[in-house]
Amino acid sequence: MTLPKKEVLALIPARGGSKSIPRKNLIKILGKPLIIWTIELAKKSELINRIIVSTDDEEIAKVALDNGAEVPFIRPSKYAEDQSTDIDVFRHCLKWLKSNENYQPEIIAHLRPTGPARDINLIDLAIKKILHNPKAHSLRSISLASQTPFKMWFLDEDKEFMNPVIKLKDCSESHSLPRQILPKAYWQNGYIDIIRSGTILNLKSMVGKCSIPFIINHMVHDLDYIEDIPYVEKALKRIIDKKNNNEDIINEDRHPV
Q1: Of 254, 181, 165, which is closest to residue 213 (Cα–Cα)?
Q2: I need a surface site. Which of 88, 128, 138, 188 has the fewest CB within 10 A?
């Protein structure tokens, strides 16, 4: 089925401060500043119309502009702190674009620069999936969790007693059931999130009431600490080698739209 033309904005949040890795978004990965990998990926998309970097940092802004992204504003510092939330960053961007350009995209692809090892075919497939599902407020990429939350516990304030994180309906001791009969659980891996602008502006949410899954079947590497760099670079090299050899990285049959 042919998709109607929709405005698809790729938003890359990239603040200047980072405690785990100072100046993380500019650290060199395979010879390039980290953020460039995500900008170059978005430029290869068949569906993304605009690429905007939201940053509070002038140096990051210059690197982004020099490599083909737009930086129409500098993000206010109050939205670039350690405790700043995604919804604040995205609402600021959308409100600025509406007020200054009278522009509002149909959907926003959230591309975190800390996860540069992505396949553009998979990104475009995720975009197609939400465009084919107009009732969906958002899409989130997920992976099968290595541990089940039904066997997890949290401690009370004084750490004297503990309680299960989650229980099965009609079963008070799901933590004692065999793992094989417990429901499969998934974790959000940050590979790609897609949100309708109305979900952000009207529902004031990054998920909404109806979020569709996009399962990633391979390891996802995110750059949080210095020791993650070799794994991220290895994943990037694998993607580059596959592309150079014209090999498929994904099985699209696993993601029907």
Answers
A1: 254
A2: 188
